[in-house]
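If I may wish for something, please walk me through the protein I am sending here so I can picture the backbone:
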Amino acid sequence: MRTARIEDVLRSGERHDVVTAFEVLEHLASPSSLLLGAREILRDGGEIFCTVPNWECDEVRTTGRHDWVPPVHLSFFTSAALSALFTRTGFRRVAVGTIWAVAPPRSVLEAARWLRRRVLTRSGALGLWVHAFR
């Protein structure tokens, strides 16, 4: 396992089976540049796994947190946008899912409210994950 910048790995000529980028793409003005570089350093059949904040989540979209908005976060992703980005940059078998940050409540009434929000508004799914292959 190694932590490195894509540019440094590209210069070294190394090839890898797996690339991860957890909570990175949203900080880039051009996330496609990182993905193109990642695709280049992956061996045939290599895998990439990334996570990003979920723009479809009300809590993310309406946040007042300074570390979730520009100039810290420069790119924002929905499930469809994330899938399209990976497909457009040449990845295949792209799978996208949600990361739930809130556990289901304990009471029946709270559980009903939680389930309604989860199904109708995606509230609580603070993140998205994507897994794809070169």
Observations:
- The mean pLDDT is 90.
